[in-house]
Predict the 3D structure of the following.
Amino acid sequence: MSNFDAIVVGGGINGLVAGAVLGRKGKKVCIIERADRFGGMASYAVDGGPSLAHALYNLSPRALKDAGIDVDRATFTGQQIDTVSLADDGNHIVFKANGVYWNDGSQHPQSKAWCELIQRFKTYGGLLRQLAEAPPPGGHSASLSRARLAEMLRLAKVGIGLKMLGKSEMRRFLQVVLSNVYDIVLDDLPDGPVAGMLAADAIRGAATGPRSPGTVFNLIYRLGHGGTITQPTGGMTAVVDTLVDGAKAADCTLLPGTEVSRILVDLDAVTGVQTADGQTLRAPLVLSNLASPLTSQLTGPSLFDIEATRRIRNIRARGTAAKVNLRLKDASPLPGLKSEQKDARLIYAPSADYVEAAFNPAKYREMSKAPVIEALRTEQPDGSHWVSAIVQYAPSDLDGGWTQEAQDRLAQITVDTLDCALPGLREQITDTQVITPDQIATATGAPGGHWHHAEMSLDQLLTLRPANGISRYAFGPKGLFLCGAATHPGGDVMGLAGRNAALMALEVQK
Amino acid sequence: MALESRYDAIVAGAGHNGLTAAAYMARAGMNVLVVEKNGWIGGAAVSRSLHEGWTYSNCSYVCSLLRREIARDLDLPKYGLQVIPYEGGASFTRDGDHFAYYSDHNALRREMARHSARDADAYRAYSQAIMRQCRFIRPFLLRDAPDPASLRPRDLGELAYLVKKAHGLGSRELGETLKFWTMSIGDFLDEHFENGLIKAHLAGSGIIGTGLGVYSPGTAYVLLHHYMGDIDGGIGAWGFARGGMGAISNAIAASFKDHGGTIHTGAGVEKILSKDGRVQGVALEDGKVFYAPVVASNMDIKRTIQHHVDTTDLPHDFTKAVNNFKIRGSSAKLNISLDQFPDFPAAPEHTSFLRGDMHVSESLFELERAYDDWKDGRWSEKPYIDMLIPSQIDPTMAPTGAHMMTVFVQYAPYDLNVDGTRSADNWTDAQRNAMADTVLNQISVACPDIRDRVVHMEVRSPLEIEREVGLTEGNIFQGELTFDQLFFNRPVPGWSQYSLPIKGLYLCGSSAHPGGGVMGAPGANAARAILRHETRHGRMKGYAA
Ligand SMILES: Cc1cc2nc3c(=O)[nH]c(=O)nc-3n(C[C@H](O)[C@H](O)[C@H](O)COP(=O)(O)OP(=O)(O)OC[C@H]3O[C@@H](n4cnc5c(N)ncnc54)[C@H](O)[C@@H]3O)c2cc1C
Ligand SMILES: Cc1cc2nc3c(=O)[nH]c(=O)nc-3n(C[C@H](O)[C@H](O)[C@H](O)COP(=O)(O)OP(=O)(O)OC[C@H]3O[C@@H](n4cnc5c(N)ncnc54)[C@H](O)[C@@H]3O)c2cc1C
């Protein structure tokens, strides 16, 4: 039996950050991870293939700093990549930081409109980031505690940020964040690949289509850290290794390959955890990187009243993103792409209508017949070459289940779709991996294999994330906190949920 | 009545909101003229006789939302308004079963239990949640939406009122409220119920008139839009206006005229005249010109700005926002004269629920698919229908022994997709008839003999609704009821308090807060704004609005 000040259950991105933040505040921390390697969804991979997450765009410097990790590490800065929207006629469109171009380098007529839209969303994203870097508003009972004051100041800052936008821009912001991406984008652009790319980015990982109100928020969320997309040097594994090093440097004890089977509670306060291999580890503070349903299973559901149980049960988390990894026979470039596009982020989303149509079947528990794809070319440490593709929509609750036949069909659809735009790709593929949301759920514990552990819809954000009444990380018995993607502000390889949770735990413990 | 050339205020459009605004202004002593393009009044709250002996509520067909403060202020019962509540309703299934919705609690419970014991238990919590939301929202209907970007005392006051109300809920309830406002009706129902038929029955109100599906966030709020009314204090109750929905407009008009108001029908406004950023009056299609320092437009914001005012001097942001205002047609209507009462084989004998609203949708997925058809520019293969036979309760609607049936249809597009081309011009007679056929097929799920009962039928696609009532694209609410177009965002950010960027020009129809339905609130609120800004005495003394 060992004793710690704090135990983190789960060593995903957020668990690692939470552990490091606590460790740096002098806590004796143990991070327990079921899998043999850390990183959870971000680094999950099968048979030497690419990890689930493949690109960095939302990593939080604030979270890294509090975890004691140098933001400018080469791992993170990696290689900034352009986005290429694939067209069946080979007329691909390239999105760079400064505009939109045709394949031949000439400027796309919608370049200016796209830049203006992106710029506006980035400004809004900056405002929302201020909210993301702190616990969601509300929840203090004491009339004017220091925390309350700090919170009011922070909100005021966002308020001032809004005011600085100017009256008319502020009003516009309050309209746009509540809107759907389809309408907002098509107000300024004709439908086509440029609109399609924005729609695709807005629905990635979500169980919504671009016409669903609230989807602009997802797009803004993605742009909260400036919108630059990088392929990290050494892949997602290297990013996770860096976080693991950070946790070690903060004197955390790391226990990979160990499953937590119970969170121990005595007299309504946590006392530690029990592992599947029979160890009991004691600590007055437990942070769970798992979503709330699993966490409440670990404590035993009796600790939650009917109301809380109902709310936890009602949290929506239908994963819709599958991973399809295509192994290539060699390092030769992908057909139809120019050499400077070889590392680009490839998007298949010819129009916003296409993205919405792709979503339709998912509503009825079917996979898209014409899917939305984000693909990256990657090289694994063993020298193998892959196309790493995120394919939507592939609902976790597929009608009939994710049988081998269904997986093969998804692979087929993915290859067919990409091969249309990159003719000849098919011949380069030697092997195919399909990782479905339900496999992700089994492997990592993420409910429904959901990208963010819980849908990022307006009714599950801020004070409502993951559910009303449990939005400020504290969860059930005294000393228990949630610290995963299901909490505010949400997922991505970002780290803010873990960092906020750790700070909140310290605050409450004081 | 002799027309003058100069008035204190002119209202463009004699919809029920235009008439409401006019009536309040007349009562405050203003000399008001209402001009209407049609030869009759009422807009979408109208009764017309298109087939000898029968009366149709051509557009809106049931009443609940009309604010009772307004009925009281304008003395509407005295001017002939009588609303008769109806009770119950039902959803029929293709395999011959049905779910009956009774207003009697015990009967409803038994019926729910017949489909799902769990759902019978869950109903209480569900209806309590809805009632709580209704109670919260109702006080806001007759108030201005505060401008969050403004520091004016009035806006801060309204904001403070909002905060106080929200605070009064307590943080737990506030969270539930925020969640309710932002979620979909489908998700909300899934949280409470398991039975598909029960859910489908309850979901309809969340999509009526909207370009959204049952699983689109924000539709739970739309449901509220159908529950926040009342009849004689019965919250959420619905009823028929005796003589059809036109009786409401007629009563408001009578009240208006009794206080010196004038209504001129049969010639629409061609142009709202303005000079140096100040409104002057209106020029009609028949060449007449009337002058007034105040013009209130009952037309939707898009029609008002795009077709009837000079936009050259308007702020670019404003016109752009108006151009981007979402006002998509999604509803159609069938009004049917029946030779006798149709046969409902699935209904028990002497049941009361045939007097209520009837539907034939069996699951949320079926409703969602109906929405997918609309997104593609087609009317739904299996549309949601809201069907009533008001002549059972109001005998004035049809000859003795005969009946009148009103069928609301969701979804039907404005820009119909024919062979890949989307255009309102595609609504030919053949297409309209084909749609009617689809709807009759749906109706026949409940009453197989419907085709034999039809004496006359009026079929209205969104295009006809636009043509007659002037509702752009046929959108029944004068603009989508989505978050980005509600409250301080309605109709467009910065202009949610009835005035428009031309001095003296106001908006008094459903495009303004709090939105569509036969409610009267936008009209009353607009009158309040006008009296405050444009008259010396200022307030609507003694009135609730
Ligand atoms: C297909 C896919 C592709 C993605 N691509 C990207 C991308 O390109 N870029 C990006 O930024 N984001 C991406 N994401 C999202 C991102 O990966 C997640 O939001 C993020 O990794 C969540 O991190 P987390 O720490 O909150 O949770 P998780 O990563 O789910 O961590 C939970 C951890 O808990 C462990 N655990 C579970 N049960 C137990 C137990 N009983 N005992 C001990 N440990 C346990 C799990 O093994 C896991 O390590 C992607 C997601 C998916 C599904
Ligand atoms: C098919 C249908 C069914 C409905 N069902 C219901 C229901 O059951 N219950 C309910 O509460 N609500 C219902 N509604 C919604 C409700 O009827 C409307 O939201 C409401 O009546 C709108 O009232 P309004 O006064 O704001 O505008 P309108 O009724 O649209 O009034 C606008 C008026 O302006 C006139 N006009 C237009 N252009 C000009 C011009 N250039 N010059 C002069 N006049 C002009 C029009 O002719 C019209 O009279 C329904 C609507 C429709 C279309």
Remarks:
- Residues 9-53+66-83+243-326+473-544 of chain B form a domain with the FAD/NAD(P)-binding domain fold (CATH 3.50.50.60).
- Residues 26 and 272 of chain B are 21 Å apart (CA to CA).
- Chain B touches chain A at residues 147-150, 171-172, 175-176, 178-180, 182-183, 187, 191, 212, 215-218, 317, 324, 326, 365, 368-369, 372, 375, 482-484, 488-489, 493-494 (CB under 8 Å).
- Residues A 9-15, 32-35, 40-42, 52-55, 58, 205, 259-260, 289-290, 321, 323, 390, 440, 444-446, 449, 451-452, 484-485, 491-493 surround flavin-adenine dinucleotide (ligand 1) (CB under 6 Å).
